[in-house]
Amino acid sequence: MPSLTRALLGACALGVFSTGMLSAAAVAETITIATVNNGDMIRMQGLTEDFTAKHPGIALEWVTLEENVLRQRVTTDIATKGGQYDVMTIGTYEVPIWGRQGWLVSLNDLPDSYDIDDILPAIRGGLTVDGHLYAAPFYGESSMVMYRTDLMQAAGLEMPEAPTWDFIAQAARAMTDKDNEVYGICLRGKAGWGENMAFLTATANSFGARWFDMDWRPQFDSEAWATTLTFYLDLMADAGPPGASSNGFNENLALFQTGKCGMWIDATVAASFVTNPAESTVADKVGFALAPDNGLGKRGNWLWAWSLAIPAGTQKEAAAKAFIAWATSKEYLDLVAESEGWANVPPGTRTSLYENPNYAQVPFARITLDSINSADPTSPTVDPVPYVGVQFVAIPEFQGLATAVGQQFSAALAGTIPAEQALATAQTLAEREMRRAGYTR
Prior knowledge:
The chain has two domains: about 5-140 and about 305-360, D-Maltodextrin-Binding Protein, domain 2, CATH 3.40.190.10; about 145-300 and about 385-435, Periplasmic binding protein-like II (D-Maltodextrin-Binding Protein, domain 2, 3-Layer(aba) Sandwich), CATH 3.40.190.10. The protein contains 20 helices and eleven strands. Strand 4 and strand 5 form a beta hairpin. The chain has a five-stranded mixed β-sheet with strand order 2-1-3-11-6. Strands 8-9-7-10 form a four-stranded mixed β-sheet. The longest helix is centred in the C-terminal third of the chain and has 18 residues, at about 420-435. The relative contact order is 0.18. By secondary structure, it is α/β, with parallel strands linked by helices. It is globular.
C-alpha cells in the first residue's frame, strides 16, 4: 500500500463535459454526492430542481454527513479507490495532496462560460496543482469575530475593527451572565483536526506558536503553545458555555442564534446565518470584527474553501462535471440571491460577487473579503516554518495527528486532564508520528 494511502487511512483510524455528451445519454444516470451538513450545502440541496430541469438525464443522490464523519469517509473511499461517490465535498487541505497523487479529476476543461479566472486568487491558489484546478469552490471562508452589539454596549465597551486577544478576553468576561445563560464567548471545543484544532492552530499562530520548526521538530513543548492553550482554557472556564468540549461549528451557531453567546469567533460563512431573522433571534444585534491578534504580526484567522471535486476513476465524470459547473457558477449565486436574498449567497469564491453593488450592501461582505485576503498560507506563523497552511499543515499525516492532539485539548477543556498533560502528550504524539513518517530521526 503506498505510504500516502497508509497515512490517510491511519488518519481516519485515529480519530471533459459538453451538452452534446450529456444529451447523448439515452438513460438517466445517478451521481452520488458526499457533502457536509452545513447550512449552505443544505440550501443547495433544496435548489437542485433548477439543475435537474436543465439536465433531465442526471439524477442526484445525496450523502450528507457531519464534518468529522465526512472527512473520514471520503478519505477512506479515495485512498482505497472505493468508488462510493462521484462528487466529494473536500477542503483546501485535501485538494493539493490528492491532486498531486492523481486521485482527482482536473476541472480545467469546464466551459468558458464558467469563468475559472473569476475565482478569487486566494481561494483558487489553494485548489490548484501544477496549473490544474482540482476542485471548484462552493464557498470560501476565513474566520472573524461575530458579536452581540447590545451586550457589548451594555458592558460599556466598543469593539475595535481589529481587536486584540486581551480586548476579546476583557469583553467576554464583562458580557458573561451565567445565571441567565448568556456566555461571553463561544469557541470550538469538539475534537477534530478541522474542528477545535482549526481554531486553536489559527489562534496559536497569533500567539507566536507553530506546529513544527524548520527541521520538522514538534513545538508543543514551547512557551508559545503553553500560553495559547492556557489562555483558551481560562477564557472558556470564565466566559464559555457548559459542555464546550462537545461544541463545533453547528453547536456554537445554534447557541449564538438563540442569544446565548456574546461573541463567537468562527467561520465568516456563519455571518449569513446569524443575521437571518428567520433563523436567528439576535439577527438585528450582530456586529463583525477581524480575528484577534497579539501585536506579533499575525491574526488568528484561517483560510478555507469547501469545494466540490471528482474522484479519479468515476464512471460518471461528464455528469459530475455538469453538476459542479452548476453548483459553483455565477448563475447559482444569482439563483440563491433570487430565492433567499443576497446575504445568503455562498461567499468567498468569485471576484464578480464582490464587485456586485447588490452584494456590497451586505453588512459582512467587505470584512469577509478582507479576512480571506489577509490570510497567508505560505507564511502563516510569526517564526518561519517548513509547511504551508494556516489552520492546518499540508502533509498527509496531519489529519490523524491533529485529531489525536485535538482529543487531548478537548479533554483539557472538559477538565479531565490539565493543560500541561495535554501539551506533553501532544508533543509525544507528534514526535512519534514525525519519526514514523520519516520527517525526523
